[in-house]
Design a protein that fits this description.
single chain, 347 residues, alpha/beta, Nucleotidyltransferase, domain 5, 3 domains, five-stranded mixed β-sheet, two-stranded antiparallel sheet, Transposase_20, Transposase, Transpos_IS110
């Protein structure tokens, strides 16, 4: 059958091979091919402009930008939203068919294509997150070795950093020379990771200062270079969301709802979506709460004072993080700076 009948294509992405299924206007399969990475561009370049769906995964954004240059309309789908359209046992062609079916749905939620700059910024954040995790593991291991030998240290990396030279220099029957050497090597690893984290953080800060969207977000309380740049890397200008509440829900900062009939049951936060960005917003909210003397300067200061009297501190942190997320999306999507008076008027 001719390729001119194709209106929708689903591509199941692989490392070196791709499975392609094309549907006509009636939903019938008119194309079913397996293509290598080198063959895919030429194969789709000969197909009339159509809708192409792919799962959002590694390499999808790069390939999506290339297909858009060929004139196709590209839609990236979250993998969990494709699964309900899968028929029968799983194989690559059925996956591609399910992607094509899901891409046509008018109520489907899609992942916006990321630019090369967004992917670069995202890579920096992923490297920094890995380095911070490794540094935390090293600190915990040092603390564990000391505790096993009856040398507890006050909680916090700063306390351990101050106590470690004295512990290692003083004669002690608890620490053998072998353990002392081991902890000294771990301390050197800690210093190396500190330097690497500082370098990556400096690069992120520099990029954030150069970006107009990041500077706009950083005018809000609790949002600095790390949060603003991570938000830009994740959602761009926020076009994928219709309102701030949708963005907060995507971050998993809204209650999990289990409702039926006229009963509405709200539980803990859903914790869905971008875990890294959700964690950053919660950390930003904690930073705001620690500076109680600055609450009056914020547009939501009155709300924060009232909420602090009736909510548990952990619940208050999440509620403030959700408010900061909605506020950040509004600033980003509508292109305006933080205005405390505006927020106070609308609170």
């Amino acid at each position: 059958m001719s390729n001119t009948n194709i209106v929708t294509i689903g591509i199941d992405l692989g490392k070196n091979t791709f499975h392609v299924v094309g549907l006509d206007a009636t939903g019938a399969i008119t194309l079913r091919k397996k293509r290598s990475r080198n063959q895919l561009d030429q194969s789709l370049g000969n197909v009339p402009r159509c809708l192409i769906g792919m799962e959002a995964c590694a390499g999808a954004h790069h390939l999506g930008r290339k297909l858009e240059k060929l004139g196709h309309q590209v839609r990236l789908l979250p993998a969990q939203y494709v699964k309900p359209y899968l028929k029968g046992h799983k194989n690559d062609f059925r996956d591609a068919e399910a992607i094509a079916e899901a891409a046509q749905r008018p109520t489907m939620r899609f992942v916006p294509l990321k630019s090369a700059e967004q992917l670069d910024l995202q890579a920096l954040h992923r490297v920094r997150s890995r380095l911070v995790t490794q540094r935390t593991a090293v600190i915990n291991q040092i603390r564990g070795f000391l505790l096993e030998r009856g040398l507890p240290v006050r909680q916090g990396a700063a306390a351990l950093r101050l106590a470690l030279p004295q512990i290692l220099s003083m004669p002690s029957e608890s620490l053998s020379p072998q353990v002392v050497r081991l902890i000294q090597d771990l301390a050197e690893d800690w210093r190396y990771l500190d330097r690497r984290v500082a370098l990556v953080t400096k690069e992120i800060n520099k990029l954030a200062e150069q970006d107009a969207h990041c500077r706009r977000l950083m005018s809000a309380p609790g949002i600095g270079p790390i949060i603003s740049s991570a938000m830009i890397a994740a959602i761009g200008t926020g076009d994928a969301f219709q309102k701030g509440r949708d963005f907060a829900a995507w971050l998993g900062l809204v209650p999990k709802q289990i409702s039926t009939g006229d009963r509405t049951i709200l539980g803990r936060i859903s914790r869905r979506g971008n875990r890294y960005l959700r964690t950053l917003f919660i950390q930003g909210a904690r930073a705001v709460l620690l500076r109680r003397q600055t609450w009056a300067r914020h547009g939501f200061g009155a709300w924060l004072e009232a909420a602090s009297k009736r909510l548990h501190s952990n619940v208050l942190v999440v509620a403030l993080a959700a408010k900061l997320a909605r506020m950040a999306w509004s600033m980003l999507a509508k292109g305006r700076d933080y205005e405390a008076s505006f927020l106070g008027h609308t609170a």
